[in-house]
Amino acid sequence: AKGSGRSTYAFYSQELTSQAQQRLELASSLRQALEQQQLRVHYQGIYDLSNGRIVSFEALVRWLHPEQGLIPPAAFIPIAEESGMISAIDHWVLEEACRQMQLWLSQGKVLRFVSVNISSRLFSHADLDQHIARILRRTGLEPRYLELEITESAVMEDPDAASVLLARLRALGVRLAIDDFGTGYSSLLRLKSMKVHKLKIDQGFISGLPDDQEDAAITRSVIGLAHNLGLCVVAEGVETAEQAAFLLQEGCDFGQGYGFARPQAASDIDWCDSTMSYG
Ligand code: C2E
Ligand code: CA
Ligand code: CA
Ligand code: CA
């Protein structure tokens, strides 16, 4: 019995060590990935629900691993956050997306802006607006063509600091969206003080549409709330024509999801407007 207790302990500690080891290894290969240019940005179209036209793109990072292939952000963003590398990744994605947007504009593409995700780590940097201003200068992109997506939970971590930073970013001329809206328990009063342009309804509420009564009620009230505050609203995770029809009927402005298009490399983008039939 004594022996088996020891071996159980040894087993667990070995497992823990190997988990910690794996994390460390992943963190160091992620650092290499950034240096060796293994990160890629894919772009997912955002569509005007009333006519199916592409209005903008969201930039989404991927890791093109030499052996493991394309790794989704969920598999490395948490490690990047833990190891502090997320800010370097966000900066890289920002610059890459601004360069791509500038290229699209120079090719005559009609797009309102490109949206980039800002991690809560980067959002807590008081000098974020200076970083963004530098990237815009370097890439030559006008501020109004860049939209920053900040999650509701990142904004609500420190709402007072967030209001100040959002006001500075807005003064810079970039557009601001609150991502994953509906999951972070914002109070209405707080929301009013956040000077943003857009709310993105979390896909968790869209998946149950149009049948789930609670999801329908929440979606309807977020659309109403956004419009009453003078904001526009995007639904993410739109997969079916029924969902798109429901959203259009409820007055939602834009839709994004596999039903329109998956995230793709810039070179693979299909510039035809959505043929998803609804309404
Ligand atoms: P997010 O910002 O909420 O992005 C939307 C996610 O939903 C993307 O996953 C997108 O591919 C996925 N999606 C889009 N349409 C559909 C759909 O119809 N059905 C389903 N089931 N999913 C859909 P992705 O690219 O794997 O990114 C996951 C998360 O990783 C993002 O969630 C975002 O929080 C984070 N992320 C991605 N790129 C970056 C980045 O450059 N910087 C930071 N800080 N975070 C990023
Ligand atoms: Ca997003
Ligand atoms: Ca989202
Ligand atoms: Ca999300």
UniProtKB/TrEMBL annotation:
It comes from the Bacteria. Residues 23-277 form the EAL domain. This is cyclic-guanylate-specific phosphodiesterase. It comes from Stutzerimonas kirkiae. The chain holds residues 355 to 633 of 638 of the full protein.
